[in-house]
């Protein structure tokens, strides 16, 4: 019986030490990340407007943009500037033709994305 209690005590101590280490490491990582000014939206893999535009080569690379329901069609100056791996990490499905790119995301409507991009392109060209 004494051996059983000794084993339970050892297991409890090991679990306690692992729990303490987990919280110390988690807290220090979170504190370091916030000190750098980081948020979840600053992550490179976050599905944000800034990251989508950057993955297709920036606003300067877009010649024209249209929306066909759940699909966004971009006419680009250079298809070579697209970072396909980054776009796939964001969840974008790319279909690349000569200078046209079709963006698809399941469950995402591109209306506001297209409007915001058209305004940004107009402000750049003006």
From TrEMBL:
TM annotation in the entry: 6-25
Superkingdom as given in the UniProt entry: Bacteria
Keyword set, alphabetical order: Membrane, Transmembrane, Transmembrane helix
Name assigned to this protein: PTS EIIB type-1 domain-containing protein
């Amino acid at each position: 019986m004494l051996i059983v209690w000794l084993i339970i005590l050892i297991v409890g101590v090991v679990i306690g030490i692992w729990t303490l280490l987990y919280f110390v490491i988690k807290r220090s990582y979170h504190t370091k990340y916030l000190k750098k000014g980081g948020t979840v939206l600053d992550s490179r893999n976050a599905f944000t407007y800034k990251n989508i535009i950057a993955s297709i080569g920036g606003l300067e690379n877009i010649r024209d943009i249209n929306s066909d329901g759940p699909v966004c069609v971009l006419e680009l100056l250079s298809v070579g500037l697209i970072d396909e791996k980054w776009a796939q990490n964001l969840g974008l499905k790319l279909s690349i033709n000569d200078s046209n790119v079709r963006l698809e995301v399941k469950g995402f409507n591109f209306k506001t994305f297209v409007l915001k991009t058209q305004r940004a392109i107009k402000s750049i060209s003006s």
